[in-house]
Amino acid sequence: MREVRMHADEPFCGAPLLRRGLTPVPLAEARDLTLRADGQALLDGVSCSFAAGRRTVVMGANGSGKSLLLRLMHGLIRPTSGTVLWRGAPLDRRARARQALVFQTPVMLRRSVLANLRFALAVRGVPRCARRARAEAALEQARLTALAHRPARVLSGGEQQRLAIARALACRPELLLLDEPTASLDPASTALIEQAVDAAHADGVTVALVTHDAGQARRLADDIVFLHAGRVAEHGPAAQVLSRPRSEAARAWLEGRLHLGP
Amino acid sequence: MDGFAEVLGQALALILSGDPDLVEIIGLSLRVTLSAVALGCVLGLPLGAVAGAFRFPGRAAVVVLMNALMGLPPVVVGLLVYLSLSASGPLGVLGLLYTPAAMIVAQTVLVTPIIAALTRQVVEDLHGEYAEQFASLGVGPAHRVAALLWDARYSLLTVVLAGFGRAVAEVGAVIIVGGNINHVTRVMTTTIALETSKGNLELALALGVVLLALALTVNAAVMALRASAVRAAYA
Amino acid sequence: MFRRPFLALAALAAAALATPGAAQDAPFIVVQSTTSTQNSGLFDHILPLFTAKTGIEVRVVAVGTGQAIRNAENGDGDVLFVHARPAEEAFVAAGHGVARHDVMYNDFVIVGPPADPAGVAGMTDAVAALAQIAAAGAPFVSRGDDSGTNKAELRLWQQAGIDVAAASGGWYRETGSGMGATLNAGTGMGAYVMTDRATWISFGNKGDYRIAVEGDPQMFNQYGIIAVNPEAHPNVRAEAARVFVDWVISAEGQAAIAGYRIDGRQLFFPNAAKPDDASTG
């Protein structure tokens, strides 16, 4: 049996499964996901879940597979083997429409701030008459109203990322996926992004956020998935993972030491 | 030949004279070429966008074909359109031969591959940037093509200009299907060919300078539009 | 956001395509003719007179005689007005034309550079002059485009007993182009060129060239006119075509042709038979 299986048998890794009924149902779940490219395993037997109503932070070093996991959960790429479940059923197009993904580098259309929001709403089938109001409400929420008619691509990095989150939330997702949304932002912008994530969570949106910033994980996480070299090294409630990591990789990471190899 | 300065002077005099025949010829040139470019856009933009934004079986062959058709010789296009529109051809009943409509058809055949092939490249580049976001949002095929074309609109201006340049400068196709009939199908390029064959080389060259000025004006106007878009970060 | 401008573009293009050509509603005919008649300015002189009288607009497609006949055979023209009698008669015999009428003639001349390398200047015997050019190996530029002029020229070479096909690419050069383009090429390379007199007189790029050989009756260039047969080509505007042909060979039309002059020189000499004894074949 492969090593990852043994991890899965450990209580914290399979915690939501083992304590069924005590913890919330997983909204999205990865089951034994493996992704190979050019003969190399980028993800190797990853099983984890994003519990409904909670904020799951996916951590790990560069190349550990965090962003790939997020894309797999969103259905942007297909796993070589394994399955992604949405509310217990295989992920499909309609399920993906219940999610929204915010990329590390925001992708903004060559249009105004407002038009970017309205485009997303149009794609999601929001009736024309409702789009403007919803777009404006989302801008208000993101405190971007003053920039509504500026070309989106002249906004600063932080503003663009807030716009990306506003665009994602305007679609009213059940699950908000964020791929290192603050990786290239200054502390002030980071704070605004984290506020936005918190506010969304307060509104009942389930959050899954990828970061390699331990401080951000402490501030935001309810649960933590720690990936190391394409495998789940830790998966459990944030307090537990952050205070008593079981794996050497996570311990080294949290203590700020350099750790080489699996 | 009396030198280029004299030719330039003659060209300027031609423009300033407001000669009604010249005005008519320039007007028809613009009407035929702009119509052909508009039709070429209607056909070529979606075609190029589809080839640029989707992966489908036979796509590589389509791209190679579009690129190859960019080099279609105008005379060959002229002959093909002539044989189609001829009274004894399959479309003869339309009665389009020796009319501006026939010239528009011929030039449309010439510019559509250019617009489609260059659009494919522009859209493919933009799609590389947008693909994941579109997939995440669940943008459907029609919406995707429309959004890519709209967002690439200022880059596509250059594409349209390439089509315009090809059409406005072309003589081989329009002279065959238009017949270079005075006051009916005579355009700048066929007039230049006619004056050359009459041995009026200075006049032909002066008309060439007028044609060049026309092309310069159109290009400058479009590029000014594009520059303002670049400043607004829409391009 | 996108659909509207795109639809506007489509509508614009469709409108442009549907917009009729100038004077579409006025009656008109298409005449397949040759570059010599067009470039000499003859049509600019006589057609307004005809249109003023009948209200029929005449649209001239000026190409080589070979192409003009071919186009008319396809039914892409109502009248054929060219200068290659055997081909014209074959056209009528094949049922494409109603009848052939002589209209006018001009003559061919051989033009050459002032240096006159073959020493033919002043000759009046075209066949002898061509033989002399061939013997001297002096450059000669031919249209080589199966036009009426080209056919007449080839007949003369044949009479001189010279196989120009063998010399092609050497001193004998075929441009495959119209009369004007061939004259431009010939004067550019110091070659002799056989041209119709009308084109030569009105040609604007003569340089120091002059007529070397003229006056040979064999170099007469007869023009004929044929209405395209509506039985073979139902789309032709037969009635208007008949009116035009009748006018061209009428006393009025013939006078108009005779009246066309450049620098006081008459270019074409009308010689239509009286309508009652017009030849049909």
TrEMBL record, chain B:
An individual GO BP term: transmembrane transport
CDD domains hit by this protein: TM_PBP2
Keywords: Membrane, Transmembrane, Transmembrane helix
Domain ABC transmembrane type-1: 26-222
InterPro entries assigned: ABC_perm_TupB-like (IPR049783), MetI-like (IPR000515), MetI-like_sf (IPR035906)
Membrane-protein topology: Multi-pass membrane protein
Transmembrane regions listed in the UniProt entry: 32-54, 61-85, 97-118, 154-178, 203-225
Compartments where found: Cell membrane
Major location (coarse): membrane
GO CC list: plasma membrane
SUPFAM superfamilies documented for this protein: MetI-like
Protein name as catalogued: ABC transporter permease subunit
From TrEMBL, chain C:
Keyword Signal: yes
Residue span(s) of domain PBP: 23-252
Top-rank taxon, per record: Bacteria
Keywords: Signal
Pfam families listed in its UniProt record: PBP_like_2
Signal sequence range: 1-25
InterPro entries associated with the record: ABC-Tungstate_binding, PBP_domain
Gene3D superfamilies membership: Periplasmic binding protein-like II
SUPFAM superfamilies assigned: Periplasmic binding protein-like II (SSF53850)
Protein name, UniProt field: Sulfate transporter
